[in-house]
Amino acid sequence: ITPVAAERSTQKHLEYIARIGKYNPEHIVFVDENSVDRQTTYHNQAWSIRGTKAQRKAFFVHGRR
What we know:
Number of strands: 2
Structural class: alpha+beta
């Protein structure tokens, strides 16, 4: 069984495909929500230049959470 979104609309899907099909796939970026660790207030994901590791400065606090 394959789950399908209850809000799925075939008409809207076809309109989206027609609209987005005009663009070069290399120019399209999809953005999704990132999770955040509320204890440390920074994101668990980040951007970086291809081939390099993403880095962030963080304070290391020892103790209980």
